[in-house]
Design goal:
By secondary structure, the chain is α/β, with parallel strands linked by helices. Among the domains are: 131 residues, no CATH class; 143 residues, Leucine-rich Repeat Variant (Alpha Horseshoe); 138 residues, Leucine-rich Repeat Variant, CATH 1.25.10. It contains 30 helices and 14 strands. α7 packs parallel to α8, α11 packs antiparallel against α12 and α18 runs parallel beside α21. The N and C termini lie far apart (72 Å). The model has no long low-confidence stretch (mean pLDDT 91).
């Protein structure tokens, strides 16, 4: 019943359901008294739509952190005259007693309650209202549903300490559930008498008693003419159990598998037991004996094995008792047994640990109800993806995504699943993956980062994100990704490797994106976070990748974004700039990043007065002579000064150094650069450069701007010629050539 991750486009039904659930007020409902959702009176929906609404709602609450659950959601389905429910699947803490109570008038045919730990015995009473229509029921993992709260009689002080006591309900049975055929009581609480509970059921077809310990299962024979499926996963078996099972001759599916790590286990499977099953259960198409130890040799000696290609013909079976099968089994569970490594296994589908196919079959079969087994199977898949090459990539990805969504709070699955995703999404598999599938990967990765502060999960998730094209592929979750990464970087104790990857991702996310994105991220505290990281590194006197990436990220996020430039100044960014310059005089990459950022700050007219101090101007002037990173540091220092000069002599509010002296040094610097320099810089717009052309107040600024344009369009014509034309640069250059104040060499270059 698990919803598999899929690769085909969503159906119109799914899209509409999703839209309505995210906009209940604007579509199906209105708000009564500003709090209770009510269905519009003219809405009538059949069960095909209502079932989908309820099941998708549960899925959204579970897997989409942005989706807000509604207290009164289930009351929308309280009246069968306007909304019909038939088949619903509810999970975990999402559902409470009052929710089931709200839909008690519905004629439910199928009700799956999986791990609904908040349900109590009140819900048992509600189940009775579905008794006349229910065909299929699962109470798997509903560990409190047989408990009711008993209020103690005389309420003394004890009331405050322990107002309610949990009492086991002993008198509930399935009396009156006349149509019930399929029942899952997996992980039922100890103390409930299963035999009494089930006795009233006339003809059960499928029964799941996973994880329940019963010494006597003789009562099962009352359904020997109807039972086609029996699951006794992790039940301690004995000879008596085997004799009872052998009498259930109608069985098509039998699962007596176990988790071999769970507890000491006396029972061993023998050749005789398997022979007994093959002889008596003639309709068997599916058998699961995973996790069992074989007491004696059930295998055919290898010299007697028919050689040649592997065969699923029972006659050639390497497992001796299965030579008696009339036809191959549809499914045979052999996970964590020695049998799965044999040559000839008479089944179309085998779960095991021998190869990719068996491992994927195991993940598929056990994900929903056996996370403890699934996490070990995913671990095997991780090894296959890492060491060999996955041949069923699409299936592998879909299964891992499904497992991660289903078990959002299971640490083992989150650790192994996120690690497997890293290898399944790397570049060699890229071509085989659709946009939709890659988006599903991103969603589960972000879910993992949200739910787990655990180092391994965080690292795996960050590494997996590095397999995507950033920012393009993350654009649809832009805010959320940034919030999660900033959250990681703001933690007081940090893992070095995660810090490095997270800063790298943050930098990539603000590179080449629209200004509104940058402003939004700035408001989340991005600038402050980066400055704090820089501060820490300075204190440790280390200039590593984190330091360089942090400055690079600040350079990117301040590009044409005045609000972020202002934040940089307000949070003492200039002080850190000077300290870094002093502490790391030889770090060229660092200098380039810092000056690129200051170039962005200098483009904002209102902020330039803050750069107008003797100390800053001296530093920028001295950097004009820097040979760091080719011309980049000198070029950026000159850019900063060009914008300051553009404000005219009256804005020069300092005595030292003199304005003329700085201008002279700027001319000298520009003349020293090679006009054919290849560049380590990326312009999205020429607007800040172009505004320095039509003015006569600072010829040197005009010259720097013309040099910049000339260099970029001659070295990278394909990229920058169209940009220059698009942004109206040609008429500005033509006008400048006519200006008397412009220097001759500037005009030559402009021509």
């Amino acid at each position: 019943s698990l919803k598999m991750a899929s690769d085909s486009p969503e159906s119109l039904m799914t899209l509409c359901t999703d839209y309505c659930l995210r906009n209940l007020e604007g579509t199906l409902c209105y708000l009564l008294d500003n709090e209770t959702l009510r269905l519009h009176p003219d809405i009538f929906l059949p069960s095909e739509i209502c079932d989908k609404l309820v099941n998708e709602y549960v899925e959204l609450v579970k897997t989409d952190s942005i989706f807000e659950p509604h207290e009164s959601f289930f009351t929308l389905f309280s009246d069968p005259r306007s909304t019909r429910l038939a088949r619903i699947h509810l999970r975990e803490h999402i559902v409470q007693d009052q929710d089931l109570e709200a839909i008690r008038k519905q004629d439910l045919i199928e009700l799956y309650l999986t791990n609904c730990e908040k349900l109590t015995a009140k819900s048992l009473q509600t189940l009775v209202s579905f008794s006349h229509t229910l065909i299929s029921l699962s109470l798997f993992g509903c560990c409190n549903i047989f408990y009711e709260e008993e209020n103690p009689g005389g309420c003394e002080d004890d009331c405050l300490v322990n107002p309610t006591r949990q009492v086991l309900v002993k008198d509930f049975t399935f009396e009156g559930f006349s149509r019930l055929r399929i029942l899952n009581l997996g992980r039922l609480i100890e103390g409930v008498n299963v035999e009494t509970l089930l006795r009233p059921l006339a003809s059960l077809a499928a029964l799941d008693l996973s994880g329940i310990q019963l010494n006597d299962v003789g009562f099962l024979t009352q359904w020997k003419d109807s039972l086609v499926s029996l699951v006794l996963y992790n039940m301690d078996l004995s000879e008596e159990h085997i004799q009872v099972i052998a009498q259930l001759r109608k069985l098509r599916h039998l699962d007596i598998s176990r988790d071999h790590l769970s507890s000491y286990y006396k029972f061993k499977l023998t050749r005789r037991v398997l022979n007994l099953f093959v002889e008596n259960l003639v309709n068997l198409t599916s058998l699961d004996i995973s996790g069992h130890t074989m007491l004696e040799n059930c295998t055919i000696p290898s010299m007697e094995e028919k050689m040649g290609q592997t065969s699923i013909e029972p006659a050639k079976s390497s497992i001796a008792p299965f030579r008696g099968l009339k036809r191959p089994l549809q499914f045979l569970g052999l996970f964590e047994t020695s049998l799965c490594r044999l040559t000839h296994i008479p089944a179309y589908k085998v779960s095991g640990d021998k190869n990719e196919e068996q491992v994927l079959n195991a993940i598929e079969a056990y994900t929903e109800h056996r996370p403890e087994i699934t996490s070990r199977a995913i671990n095997l898949l991780f090894d296959i993806a890492r060491i060999e090459r996955c041949s069923q990539l699409l299936r592998a990805l879909q299964l891992v995504i499904t497992a991660l969504k289903c078990h959002k709070d299971d640490k083992n699955i989150q650790v192994t699943g996120s690690a497997a995703l890293f290898y399944l999404t790397n570049s060699e598999y890229r071509m085989e993956q659709s946009v939709k599938l890659r988006r599903q990967v991103i969603q589960v990765v972000l879910n993992g980062m949200e739910s787990y502060q655990e180092v391994t999960v965080q690292r795996n998730c960050c590494l997996t994100l590095c397999n995507f094209s950033i920012p393009e592929e993350l654009e649809f979750q832009y805010r959320r990704v940034n919030e999660l990464l900033l959250n990681i970087l703001n933690q007081s104790r940090q893992d070095e490797s995660i810090q490095r990857i997270a800063v790298h991702l943050c930098n990539a996310l603000v590179c080449q994106v629209d200004n509104d994105h940058k402003e939004a991220v700035g408001k989340m505290g991005f600038v402050m976070t980066m400055l704090k990281l820089i501060q820490k590194k300075l204190a440790d006197k280390t200039c590593d990748q984190v330091m360089e990436f942090s400055w690079s990220a600040l350079w990117n996020i301040t590009d044409e974004t005045p609000d972020n430039c202002e934040m940089f100044l307000n949070y003492s960014g200039m002080k850190l700039f000077l300290e870094c310059l002093k502490e790391f005089p030889e770090k060229q990459e660092l200098h380039r990043n810092m000056l690129g950022l200051l170039g962005n700050v200098a483009e904002v007219k209102e902020l330039r007065p803050q750069l107008m101090t003797s100390q800053f101007i001296s530093v920028f002037s001295n950097l004009l002579e820097s040979k760091a990173d080719g011309i980049e540091v000198s070029y950026n220092a000159c850019g900063v000064l060009s914008h300051i000069m553009f404000d005219g002599p009256e804005a020069w509010g300092i005595y030292e150094p003199h304005r003329e002296e700085v201008v002279k040094r700027m001319w000298a610097a520009i003349q020293s650069w090679d006009i054919n320099s290849r560049r380590n810089i990326n312009y999205r717009s020429f607007e800040p450069i172009l505004r320095l052309l039509p003015q006569g107040i600072s010829p040197v600024s005009q010259h720097w701007a013309t040099w910049a344009l000339y260099n970029l369009v001659s070295v990278y014509p394909d990229k920058y010629c169209p940009l220059l034309i698009k942004e109206g640069g040609i008429p500005l250059l033509k006008d400048m050539i006519k200006m008397a104040s412009a220097r001759q060499e500037t005009k030559e270059m402009a021509r």
